[in-house]
């Protein structure tokens, strides 16, 4: 059976050509191909890791942003509250002050009015006194111009005086 | 996908036409040979001999027969290189030995234990010796061609990898990259283990693609395909020898201790009579032997079945022409089916040979645990 009988010549050529093939392919084909594949895989895996890390970082940053916004919000609210309080306080204070001022002004006004009134009264008093003196002078002039009249008056006066 | 199907279809069409052509020419050839050699070779009977027809197609030969037309053979003569004790090294073209001619006292034996091999004869035509024969036969040419093809393909792919560094694969590179990755990640890595697999991957890739390409070329009937390389026991023996030697050379202490002092076995199976070590040592040689036989038998069987279907046409055709015409479409359909199956087998056998080699390497380099 030739079919299952190995042939030495063919075996020789097969081993020679396959050895050459093996050597050439390992040196010039498989090494560069496998290296390139490995390099590509490495670069892919490193880029994937980098992408993942970047994503995580982004998430972290986003979280931070949110936190900052939250804080800012809180701060804003606090500020607003404070401002409101301050406003109220200021308003209260100014109101208080205004009240006091108003009181003072009123008091002063009262005092000055009193003073003015007194002055005016005094002046009126003086004028009335002067007028009365004038009137009295005139009346006296008229009444006491004639002798008879003077006597009459004296009589009247004397009559009035009750000498008891 | 569409392109792939189209290519397969073309290959199949070619293969079918070729086989028909070969088969028809073979009947002529047989008859002519017969009439020529009637004087000295009277054992053969008239007509079509499917056995001879099939074996003529799957065995190695000294020339590359292309076509015979109306009794004229067109064959590429190949160099015959012989070394005999009487004449030393002798070289000539195989065309000198065609049709049973004797050249420089050498002829191709027609019968006997050296049938279809070159033998040395004396002046009266009697057998003297079988010379040391390193002729460049059909299979040698096919092997050299497939080696050149592989070098061309993979070196150009390697250059593409260098040129397109870090980019997505393209063209031939993207066709072969899945296969390369398959061998590396699904054959070498799990069978050999993370630690040692890189050392063996190049060899595994080489045998995988060598077997695959030769299996596929064996299915292509026209030149440069058509030689039955991986269905030749010598070729599969050489491949198995490579696996055997690599396994043996890289075998570590743990591997040898598993063979000669198998752990977990009762001492009385080892000590007075080394039964288990004997079986284990036998297994070391059985493994490559099985590799050799499996590939050879699978590929040869496929070729034999395809050729058998064609033989049917001529067996029936010899009975009556009409019957031959009736049988031929059936035969062709069966052959197409078989050829498709053979493409599958081409991949499976390349894969099986590679994964078994990988498993043997894995055993050889396994660390003790």
In a few lines, what is going on in this structure?
Chain A is mainly α and 164 residues long. Chain A has helices at 8-143, 147-160. Chain A has one domain.
Structure notes:
The complex is a heterodimer of chains A (164) and B (369). By secondary structure, chain A is an all-alpha fold. Chain A has one domain. Chain A is built from two helices and no strands. The longest helix of chain A has 136 residues, at 8-143. Chain A is rod-shaped and about 200 Å long. The mean pLDDT of chain A is 89. By secondary structure, chain B is mainly α. In chain B, helix 3 packs across helix 5. Chain B has nine helices and eight strands. Chain B starts with a helix and ends with a helix. Chain B has two domains: 79-135, no CATH class; 138-365, no CATH class. A three-stranded antiparallel beta sheet of chain B has the order 4-3-8, with no helix packed on it. A three-stranded antiparallel beta sheet of chain B has the order 5-6-7, with no helix packed on it. A two-stranded antiparallel sheet of chain B has the order 1-2. The longest helix of chain B is centred in the last third of the chain and has 45 residues, at 275-319. Chain A binds chain B through residues 2-15, 17-18, 20-22, 24-26, 28-34, 36-37, 39-40, 43, and chain B through 55, 58-60, 81, 115-117, 132-137, 139-140, 143-144, 147, 150-151, 154-155, 157-158, 161-162, 165-166, 177, 180-181, 184, 198, 201-203, 205-206, 210, 232-235, 237-239, 241-242, 296, 300.
